[in-house]
Amino acid sequence: MEKTAVIAIGGNSLIRAGERGTIDDQLGNAHATARHIVRMVERGWRIVITHGNGPQVGAALMRSERAAGEVYTHPLDVCVATTQSEIGYIIQRAVEYELRQIGLFTPVMTVLTQVRVDENDPAFKNPTKPIGPFYSKAVAEEKQKTLGWDVVEDAARGYRRVVASPEPVEVFEEDIIRKILGLGMIVIAVGGGGIPVIEREGYLVLGREAVIDKDRASSLLASGLGADCFIISTDVEQVYINYKKPTQQALGRMKVSELESYIKQGHFAAGSMGPKVESCIRFVRKSGKEAIITSFEHLLEALDGTTGTHILPD
Among 17, 125, 174, 271, which residue's CB has the most CB atoms within a 10 Å radius? Predict the structure, then answer.
């Protein structure tokens, strides 16, 4: 039987360091990533691709803000929906082309995905996720006053808006994604962690000004689909402890409890590798299956077990 993999691709799969992030840049990088993913399809894997949207949603917010005097503005949940479509289109084009280069004509579909969060999640009372452009202190304080934004100083480069990053609870389109996979198609879903929504009585769905971590949402989807493998593609070949220190050490194959002990020792930063490691642990704990963290260039080698960080059940 075919195996199913959920692959969460990182920002470097679309915009590399030093690039402006033009559509041409993103298409070129998407093709580079797609070439490795389609080799998995060639091996018989059923694939769900998820992705981040940080730079793109920041650009969407900036466009909305600067054009506010002439056209209607977009709230954050609509910006997430917009960038899901934009990035899905870019990845879909790239994957379809690369499939055809190796003689495969597997259909690819992008699914606009809503992810339910708890409106009482503590994250809404403590927004921490920076989004959008940098502002001077005076401009930030004005927006804080007039728009009700939460604003913080970010990395000594200026002030930015911060929003909540609540835990994903449910992927609304999970059953649809499962059915599309069953038709033999490749699915692109949960873009940017999914459109953050809450559900109230009477099936009323409301968008929320929030950003869901894409690795956590991808882990939730992978568990719900019963995926055989959850892969996080990032900008390093393996996870390291003592990262960028003289005692840096790459992690290969390990039991989930061992990785948890490294978290307790403070090895993985909250803003970078931390959520990726935690998301893999969640998947392995729920599913009893394997999770892998590696770079897209080493995807096939990681599947063969010759590189990457492999998280296994105890």
Answer: 174
pLDDT tens, 162-218?
999 999 999 999 999 999 999 999 999 999 999 999 999 999 999 999 999 999 999
Residues 6+ apart with CB under 8 A from 10: 52, 232, 233, 234, 235
Alpha-carbon distance of 145 to 4, in angstroms, equals 48
Residue pair 60/79 in contact by the 8 Å Cβ criterion? yes
**Which residues touch 229 (CB under 8 Å, ≥6 apart)?**
3, 4, 5, 6, 289, 290, 291, 292, 303
In the chain, what are the domain boundaries?
A: 4-116+184-312
Q: Give the Cα separation of 11 and 17 in Å (integer).
A: 9
Taking the C-alpha atoms of residue 170 and residue 174, their distance in angstroms, rounded to an integer, is 8
CB 48 within 8 A of CB 230: no
Q: Which two tokens stand for residue 274?
A: 């931390």
Q: Where are the alpha helices (DSSP H) in the chain?
A: 23-42, 54-66, 76-101, 137-147, 174-182, 214-225, 256-264, 273-287, 299-303
Whether pTM > 0.70 for this model: the answer is: yes
Q: How far apart are CA 263 and CA 193, in angstroms?
A: 23
CB atoms within 10 A of CB 31: 17
Options 3.40.1160.10, 3.30.230.70, 3.40.50.620, 3.40.50.2300; which CATH number does 4-116+184-312 get? Answer: 3.40.1160.10
The two tokens of residue 136 are 């001077």
